[in-house]
Every structure is written in structure tokens, then in C-alpha cells.
Amino acid sequence: MGTLDLSIVDWSRVQFAVTACYHWLSVPLTLSLGFIMAVMETLYYRTGKEEWKRMTKFWMHLFTANFVLGIAGGIILEFQFGTNWSNYSWLVGDIFGAPLAIEGIMAFFLESTFFVVMVFGWNKTSKGFHLASTWLTWVGATLSALWILVANAWMQYPTGTFFNIDTVRNEMTSFSAVVFSPVAMSKFFHTVTSSWIIGAAFVIGVSSWYLLKKRNIEFAHKSIMIASIFGLAGILLAVFTGDSSAYQVAQKQPMKLAAMEGLYNGQNGTNLVAFGVLNPEKKVYNDSISPYLFKITIPHGLSLLAYRHWNAFVPGIQDLLDKSYLLTLKNGEQVKPLTTDEKLTFGRMAHQAMIDYRLAKKAKNDSLMAVNRAIFDATSPYFGYGYVTSKAQLVPDVPLTFYAFHFMVILGVFFLLFFLYVLYVGRKIEKMTWLLWLSIFSIPLAYLTSFSGWIVAEVGRQPWAIQDLLPTFAAASYVPVASIKLTLTIFVVIYTVFAVAIVGVMAHEIRKGPESIK
Amino acid sequence: MDYAFFQAYWWLLVSLLGALLVFLFFVQGGQTLLYTIGKTEMERTLLVNSLGRKWDLTFTTLVTFGGAAFASFPLFYATSFGGAYWPWMLLLVCFVVQAVSYEWRTKGGNIFGHKTFEAFLLVNGFGGLILFGIAVGTFFTGSEFSVNKGDLTQLAMPVISTWHTPWHGLEAVLNIRNLLLGFSIFFLARVLGSLYFINNIDDEAVLRRSRRQVLYDAIAFLVMFLPFLIWTLFSQGFAVDPSGTVYLEKGKYFLNFIQMPLVGILFLIGVVALLYGIYLGTFSKSTKGIWFAGVGTVLAVLMLLLNIGYNHTSFYPSVYDLQSSLTIYNSSSSFFTLKVMSVVSLLIPFVLAYIVYAWRVMDKKKIDQKEMNEESVKY
């Protein structure tokens, strides 16, 4: 019997991260451009003007080229839970699998069926049915996002579940608790509304290129107008939902919040770091080296964000790992969370209780079974800590989480100002060469913002696959490292080919422009 | 309705998705015929556009099949995908390259040219079908894995299901019965592909070659499938006694058809319908062969899968450790989860209805050269 060594886990993580990133190159544009072209087609349906139809079709060309890339990436992600994270699949499949199955039944068929009608049905269906198909394709994509984000949110905050010692897995006890968990709701709305920024930036950027080239002027202005309204709505909602996401993180994953802020030692009335440079010398969470080289802060900002009180105590990494502290909740109530040492003890107790329970079961010793079941039920919410051998394992990559978070926030502010300004200048944008260039440049920036958000969410959650229940190093499949490296290489090669191809296809469509649409 | 009812119900749904998937493999089968039936660029354009309006339905069914298997039989999902790593991974690669091929094949600016994407379609057709058949073959022949839930607390190696060959699934290729099923699926999909072309494309040359191809592939299919079937029905099967102990029983799968007569009869009806569809495609002027062959395929595959799931049978057996074999009872999700998902499954008829409706709207008129010349949106 071999060991599930870290290289297996790490390479599995790399493979998942790489494939997820490729998938995310396509998804946000699908979620947002789908809406924009549905709005344009609605305008065509209501006014009967051919120019709206042409605009719809033009953006639809770009949408479809991008859409299939998302399909190519998505299938790998789904099956990877089984191929590379088999222990995970068994241990939480009872809860995690359900949203995936529902996603298939409810969203994927909707998307794929009406996608075909939308693309090929212009001359085969009525105007109304076609319009409905375009909307339904977008609804399908958004529903799909809902279910996969419900699943993801459950990993961050496992709720509506209990660990069944007999079946040796987590089982669902409340579907509504899983679906409507506050984390799931803020995650869904934040992810979807922030995706709109990408579609808006994309449409504005492409249209700006036409304005720079002095072609398709009317088309560009109309597209920019629709996209900037949509983008502004997206960024405003993303700010709002981002705030509630961060609030949820503070409550459910305080370690992630501490990493996001590079906060090692908490205090009452903690400041929010608006901008900062971390000290690369800081290697260990409990050394005495200062974490920052430089920072600009907003007084009491983090306390307000995390606990909705200007003077609330926000625990840092060292508080979370080594100390005992009091938290004041929004309603003024004071609670004393479990210390890490206590959680580690509970984790080990849960493991031992499971071992003893299974022995007692084999020996048919009912009373011993009952005792161990009781111990297990009381300690199993911390089951994952039973795998943890040193507290340092519980600290995520602080610099990566910190910079990703701040990068996302700073760019979020940029996009708020950007959309506002584009709306404000209106048709004058045509003469503002710098703004047109900035618009083009904002397309990659929008993607970077979105990726940063995912880095915060997923790197900040480490080492947990499922918060407190299962660390990544107990979740993987036992597959030879060489196999994982080889499949990873295959995926990287294929996706790189795809990335090159789609850039070529899109550039060609854009160069051809809407005037080529029949 | 007790736990066992829902376990049986979800096995039925997963099997139905599997059966629909095999029918929808007509897309992959059709892809392998691109150069056999399509001799000119225009003919290949007809074939690609005809298949191109269906490919994502097959794809979606595969993804939903995976999701439903994950949700309802997570121990199978964990054991099979994490263990038989290579066949599943390669299968996925075959589908990844398909996803973009239709859309990008003739798009301007595509620097790899249309031949690259046609090659991807061939990879998907050949590789996807044969690998899928081989992987499903192990449902009848068994694999080398063990499941031990007690391992969860082994800190150095907490993985509960372990594969016991270094080949991680590739060893399935060495089993002749798996290969027979792999090639059965392959030739069946080609039969269905040709029948679909007959039904969907209005072109004399395509029609003529498709009809001829149905016959060739049908013969090859029967040569592969009949030995698989007879061998499987009368060799040892993986039976489960009431206490849950798995044992080998000669003729188990044949007995299952006898002891579940409805399953047996529907299987036969499926086979007959398939053969009738083939007859219509080959020896008559009818273009409806795909419907008979399609319904026949769905019925036959569904009944084969019910055969190995029901009547005290292990659907995913282990030849390494017989007692690790998976049944629908020891590998399923909890009672509660199955119930919740069953409520969601009430949406399925609605989903089927809109798929059928959209399909009919899109296929009212057959694809022909005129449309390909006039239509601006095409693959």
C-alpha cells in the first residue's frame, strides 16, 4: 500500500486550477454577452429595425465561438471530481453531487437545446420563438452558474448536512439549507453580476476599436450605450454583493479573511488595508517580522466590513491559530469561538471514535458503539482537523490571497468609474482617443479582476477542500503522479491550441465587422 | 416508497441517460463516416451541418449522465473515475476536442484550418465510442479495485477506494469481451449515424452511400455484438445474496432476463426494433429507419443496464476483491438525497418535451445543398 503523498495532491490541485482557469476564460462572457444580445434582439422584436437584428447577430457570432470553449472546459471539471478527487466524491457526493445532477437536468439541456435554435433558427422559426430561445440560452447559462456555485458555496460553508458514521460520509439533511445558504446566495449573485462587467467591457472595447478605425460608428455607439448601462448595473451589484460575500467570509471563514488582509494580529477597530505591500521576509505566521513593508489603511474599515461594527474585534492569523478571543456579533452578543487547539483535539477524537466504532460494530458491542457514536456526532464537524499535523498547514498562501483581493477591489473601483465616465461622455467618446484605447485595454483587465476574485475564493480556502471537514490532502484519488502530469500536459496543450484558435476566430469576426452580416 | 425503491428508480434514470447517450452517439458514428459518405466538400458540409445541430445534445447527455451518476451512486463515481483513470480521461479528451470543432471548423481566422477540426471529429468518433464501450464492458467483466471505508482514518493513505493495477483502467483493453462491446458500440453508432443521414439530409449521393453503409456496419455490429451477448449471458455473472455477499453465478445475466420477464421481453423488442430499423435503412425506400433503430437501441441498452442493476446483481463488480463489488444498494446516495433529486426528476418529461419540440421545429425541412448555399449561418 502506497501513500497519498503531497505530490499527488499538489499536481491534482494544479490540474484542477489550470482547467478551471481555462473554463473561466469563457464562462463570464457567456453569462454577460448572452444578456446583452438578448436585449438587442428584444429591441429588434419590438421595433422591427434590421440594424438591431444585425447587431444581435454580430455579437451572437462572437458569443457562439466563445460558448463552445466553455463547453469544452466544463466537461473536464465535472469528471475531475471523480478522476482526481475520488475520496472527496465519496465523502461529500451525497450533497455535492445533487446540484451537479440538477444542473444537468435543469440548465444544460435548456442551454444546449435553445442554443441550436438561436444560432440556426433565424429562418426556421417565428420571431417570437427565436427571441425566446435567445433568452432561454442565457437563462440556462445563468441557472447552470447557480447550481455549480451552490455546490462551491457548500464547500466553503458546509451546511444542511451531517456526518453519518455508519456510511462513512457526509449526508444531506436539508436541501433548502444547501441551496439557500447565505454563502451560496452571495456567491451566486456576486459571481454572476461581476461577470457582467466582462461582457460590458468586451462590447465597449470591441466597439471602441471600430471607433478608432472610424467604421461602424452607429453600431459602436449603440453597443457602447447598452453595454455601459449593463456594466454599471453589474459593477454596482458586484460591489453590493461583494460586501455581503466578504461579510460571509468573516463569519464562516475567518482565516480566509485574515489572509485577504494580511492580518496576523487582530484588534478592536481593525483598519482595512486599501493598498499595501507585504514583507516577503515574513515566512512563518508566528514570527515577529512585520507583515507589511507599506500600507495605506481605512480606519476601522475591516471591523465594519466583517462585523458591521466600527470597533469590533477582527481576529488575525495568529489569534485564530494560537489564541482564545471574544467576538462581538452584530446583535451585540459576545461569543468565544473554539480555539484551533480545541478543533485539533476534536478532529482527532472524531477519527478515534470512528475507528473504535467500527471495531465495536465488528465485535457487535452495542454499548461501545453507542458511546463512540455519541463522541463522533459531537466532534465530527471538525473531522478534517484529524488530518492536520501542524497548525501552519491551516494558513493559506497569504501573499497570493492578499494581492488577489486588493487587485480585485482596486480594479472594481476602476470599472465603476470607467462605466460611469463612458456613460457620461456619451457620443463624445468618439473623439477621445485615450478613452477608446483604455476601453480596449479594459477587456483583459476585466478578466484579471474576475480571476482575482476566484483566487481569493479558492486559494483563501486552503487547505480545505470542504471547510473543517476535509483538507485537500485527504480528498484526492490515488493515481500515480506521472499520470496526473501527463493528463495535465495533454490539457495544457489542447487548451493552448484552443486559446490561439479562438483569438484568431474572434479577431477575424471583429475585423469583418457587423457590415458582413446578412 | 422506501429506500430500495428510490435506489431502483435512480438506477433506472441513470440507465435511461446511458441508453439515450448510446442512441445519441449517432453523432459520433456519423463523424467517423465523414470521409466515407462525404466524397466532396459539399457533401461533407451537408454531413457536418446535419450532425452539428445535434452534437451538443449528445454532449449534454454525457455530462448529465456523469452528474446523475455522481449524485445518485457516488461510490461508483469515486471508484470508477478515480480508478479507471486513463480510459475515462482519454474519453474526456475525445469529447473536449469535439466541443469546439463544429463551431470553429470553417470559421475565418481559424489558423489551424478545417482539416484539423475534422481530425478532431474523427478522434472523437473513433476514440470516444470505442473507449466508452470498453469502459461499459467492465460493468459486465469486472475491474481490479477494492473499497475499504475504514481507510478514511489512515492518515498516510486515507483513500477509501483503490485500484490495483498500475495501468489504471487501460488493462480493460486486454479483455476480449470489453473489446467486443467497444466495437459493438462503435459499429452501432455508425449504423445510427447513417440512418440519421438518410432521415435528415436530402441528397441523392449521400442517401445512396448511407444506405449501403448501414448494411456494412450492421453486419460488423452483429459480428461484434452477438458473441459479446451470448458470452455474457451464459458466462459467470456477479450475483449478490440477501446478506449482501457477492458470488459468481453461471448464466446470471441470462437468468436475470428470465426472472425479470418484462426486462427480457423489452430487450428482445429493442433488438427486433433495431433490426427492423436497419432493414428499413438498407432494403426499403423508407427514411424512418432511425426511429425504429433509435427506440430499439434505447430499449436494448436500457434493459441490459437494468439487468445488471436489478435482481440481486452487482453493476460494477470487482474481480480483485469480490466483496468490494458495487451494487445499487451499497453505492447509492442517502435516502434523503435520492428523494430530493426524485422531485427534481419530475422535470424530465418537460425537458424531453421541449427538446422534441425544438428538434421538430429545426428539422421540419431536410438539409440540402440549396440551403447550404443560401444559409449564412452554417458550420
Structural key phrases:
heterodimer, A: 518 residues, mainly alpha, two-stranded antiparallel ribbon, 15 helices, 10 strands, 69% helix, 7% strand, B: 379 residues
Structure description:
- The complex is a heterodimer of chains A (518) and B (379).
- By secondary structure, chain A is mainly α.
- Chain A has a domain at 15-256 and 423-516.
- Chain A has helices at residues 6-47, 50-84, 86-120, 127-156, 175-179, 182-212, 217-252, 254-261, 301-307, 317-322, 340-362, 366-379, 398-425, 433-459, 481-512, and strands spanning 161-164, 169-172, 267-268, 272-278, 292-298, 313-314, 327-328, 334-335, 464-466, 470-471.
- In chain A, strands 1-2 form a two-stranded antiparallel sheet. In chain A, strands 3-6 form a two-stranded antiparallel sheet.
- The longest helix of chain A is centred in the first third of the chain and has 42 residues, at 6-47.
- Chain A is globular.
- In chain B, a hairpin with a 5-residue loop joins strand 3 and strand 4 (246-250).
- Chain B is globular and about 65 Å long.
- Chain B has one domain (3-374).
- Chain B is mainly α.
- Chain B is built from 16 helices and four strands.
- Chain B has helices at residues 3-24, 26-32, 34-37, 41-52, 55-72, 74-83, 85-104, 113-141, 176-200, 204-234, 252-259, 261-283, 289-309, 335-345, 348-362, 369-374, and strands at 145-147, 161-163, 236-240, 246-250.
- Helices cover 69% and strands 4% of the residues of chain B.
- At the A-B interface, helix 2, helix 3, strand 2, helix 11 and helix 15 of A face helix 5, helix 6, helix 7, strand 2 and helix 14 of B.
- Chain A: Belongs to the cytochrome ubiquinol oxidase subunit 1 family.
- Chain A: It is found in: Cell inner membrane.
- Chain A: This is Cytochrome d ubiquinol oxidase subunit I.
Instruction: Estimate the helix proportion of chain B, in percent.
Output: 55-70%
Q: Overall mean pLDDT score of chain A?
A: 93
Q: How many structural domains of chain B?
A: 1
Tally of helical segments of chain A: 15
Largest interface: A-B, 101 and 81 residues
**Sheet having the most strands of chain B:** 2 strands, antiparallel
Number of DSSP E strands of chain A: 10
Class by SSE composition of chain B: mainly alpha
In total, the number of strands of chain B is 4
Tell me the strand percentage band of chain A: 5-15%
- Major sheet size, sense and barrel closure of chain A: 2 strands, antiparallel
